[in-house]
Amino acid sequence: MTLTRTYQKKVFILTYSFFRNKEDALDLVQETFLRLYQKIDSFRPGHNFEAWLLQIAKNLCIDQYRRESGRRRELERDKPVEEMNIPDLKAEGGEEARDLKEILTRCVAKLAERQRLIFIMRHYNQLKNEEIAQTLGISVGTVKSLHFKAVQNLRAHMSPYLGWET
Amino acid sequence: MNDCQKTKNRLTAFFEGNLEGGDEDVMKKHLDECPECRRTAEDLRRILDGADAVREDLHEVMASIDWDALPQKIADAAFARTKRAPEPAPVRSFWRALVQPRFQPVYAGLLLGIIVSAFGMLFLLNPQAFRRPAGERYFASPDLIDRAELQLARRETLDYLDKSQYLILDFVQSGPGQARLLQKGQASLRLQDMLSKKRYINQQLDRMQMAKAREICNQIEVLLLELSQISDELTAREEAKIKDFIEQRQILLKIKLLKKELQESEV
Questions:
Q1: B142-263 has which CATH code?
Q2: Which one of A75, B34, B197, B230 is at 20 to 30 Å from B157 when CA atoms are compared?
Q3: What pLDDT, on a 0 to 100 scale, did the predictor assign at position B115?
Q4: Which residues 6+ apart lie within 8 Å of A27 measured at CB?
Q5: Inter-chain Cβ pairs, chain A and chain B, closer than 8 A
Q6: Where are the domains of chain B?
Q7: pTM, whole model, 2 decimals?
Q8: Is A1 on the interface with B (CB under 8 A)?
């Protein structure tokens, strides 16, 4: 239970950022730790335990995402941004900030799998590039490159709806 | 890489405060001078602000979760999962019950019974199928039998020619007045034997269509017949006449050639 207490929030941030649904995220946290207890013998001492745990969580997220790709939640997430009730951009700052969050959340969901994971880990989990590289099993250079592409794509996705020039 | 591209690549690090002092100054200077990069930087800053805002939301959601209870819940789930004994899948229908492994010996027995019954029915309904036809009880083809008979005929003929040759040579090489010795003892028996053997050989030579051998054997037969009838009163003139006959017909040469041909299986 100590392991769970130590890492449960970090796993939750990843799963929640991926699905934006509290119950689903908690289910995935539980499944991640159940898998961890099943596979604990295969962990090699000396390796980064947190990266290994997040890797399990990431794999479960991707599996779940692919399973549910045709379901209602997916349809909801894929709803075109045009259909969202976006107030006038000239509205007051509080409203605009809430819309920015909403648009960002939906546009992050539209990113390619690895770009999305890297953006979430970098900005929501606040992991360093090295930690992300370990978790995803890729080089730090690739992490930087994919993060840059993620930001560029987010800018491109969000620009038409927030009045940004591209 | 030009300044703009370098700037765009390092904007995130700039906003996160991860640039060295010198690099940060260069970045600021470029942003002051380049409106496009400034615009890009502004957009990125807003994206990062949005991410910060999302993270704040995230913390709000996390605040609503009972983190102390979650480990116990996970431990209970893990315990329940290990406790769950691996039971065989419940049989859902009659047909599924039929395909269970425990019935395999029964199915094997049934299959064997069907096969044995099928052979039994076939035997009862069509017994001829299990009997070998009378003509095929011995597995020798007619062609093989023909070849065996031909070989036998050749050997018999060769034997006949051999013996005839010795007899004729005995007669030819005998001095005047000695020919009548052929009428006595072993020589007489050999002559009689040769004459009776010729009758047996005739059938084989006719059946095997060995016409050339048949003709020579006929000439030999005539000669042997003559020799068998030699009497004490045989004059030297008559003896010389028989020897002339042998010489004129080249009987010894013909015997020799025929033997060679028979040995080479050309007849």
A1: 1.20.120
A2: B230
A3: 95
A4: none
A5: 89
A6: 3-63, 142-263
A7: 0.49
A8: yes
CA pair distance B195, B225, nearest whole angstrom: 7
| Contact with chain A for residue B50, Cβ under 8 A | yes
Q: What is the CA radius of gyration of chain A?
A: 17
CB contact, 8 Å: B19 with chain A?
no
pLDDT of residue A44: 82
Q: What residue ranges define each of the domains in chain A, with the CATH number in brackets? A: 1-78 (1.10.1740.10), 88-166 (1.10.10.10)
Q: Please give the pLDDT value at position A121.
A: 87
Residue A138 is classified by DSSP as: -
Instruction: Please give the Cα distance from A15 to A21 (Å, whole number).
Output: 9
A82–chain B nearest CA distance, Å? 19
Sort out which chain B residues have CB atoms less than 8 A from A154's CB and list them.
47
Say how far apart CA A117 and CA A102 lie, in whole Å: 18
Nearest to B77 among A17, A34, A159 (CB): A34
Is B40 close to A151, i.e. CB distance below 8 A?
no
Whether residue A22 contacts residue B65, with contact meaning beta carbons closer than 8 Å, is answered with yes
What CATH number does domain B3-63 carry, 1.10.10, 1.10.30, 1.10.20, 2.60.40? 1.10.10
pLDDT tens digits for range A110-158: 888 889 889 988 888 888 888 888 888 899 999 988 988 898 898 888 8
